[in-house]
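A quick aside before the break. I want you to see a complete sequence-to-structure record at least once, exactly as it would be stored in a machine-readable document. Don't worry about memorizing anything.
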Amino acid sequence: MDLKPEIVLLDAETLGKVEALKEIENLGNLTIYQTTKNDLVAERIKNATIIITNKVLITKEVMLASPKLKLICVAATGMNNIDLVAAKELGIEVRNVSGYSTNSVAQQTFASLLHLQNHIQYYNQFVQNGEYAKSEIFTNLAYPIEELNGKTFGIIGLGTIGKKVAQIAESFGLKVIYYSASGNKYDVEYEAVSLTYLLQNSDFVSIHAPLRDDTKNLITAKELVLMKSSAKLINTGRGGIVNHTDLAYAIDNDIIAGACIDVYAVEPIPFDEPLLNVKKKQKLVLTPHIAWASMQARETLVKGIINHIKLFINK
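That is the input. The structure line, written in tokens, reads:
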């Protein structure tokens, strides 16, 4: 390609400060928007050859209004915000980046679980608000801490991230079992089990599956009642896999012992998100879809986008 392409980044705020973004400026005429509402997309990309988007919706109508558009780079793994059928019809390449967040998601999975398991919030507040200074003994056993060692860790979705989580789980002395919604069999030492068996026998259930027709609402009231009352649920996979109305009920009625949730069916969450109204908030860890977003993961993601752009330019 002789002329520098017009490159438009539609939602830079979702990437934060990433040094690698500077390299894109050398590849074309880069225009950066921090956020872009749906009604502004067509206007902003009408002259673009390449667009970069994380979550902005790219419809067929938008593509038709952008006659120069040749490449869509998705700053994520999931591409459900792109009309892939329309892109193919119009000869527009769509490229995502996979594998960039494996370590980040695995780390957040256990950061959230350990925060909940070890009652970090309670004990931190106990010391910081001066209660420990008033104590007559050297410790506080109000919320007993149970060790992970020897317990069973059930993983739903044993892809790249699921396997990384399994490795870390083993280092804590946890027994790992897994359920594959797709029916895939993996060459691993972990036991493949049914969803029912996994829910009934796991002390921790960690979700790392994609959102598809067969995983949407995979965990509802019917599944939650199968779990041990002492079990905890972790979802750093995809929102929509767990029914949050049912989960909120399960938390407040002691059907399960707790949950760590990083992903939601609607993001940002609405004010009536069921988990915001849970009464037993000490049993919950809620984070705003940050498991993917370590500094290193975001740098790797942008470098992946740069590689896609370079390959396109050098055709």
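Two observations worth writing down. The chain has twelve helices and twelve strands. The first strand starts at residue 6 and ends at 9. We'll return to this after the break.
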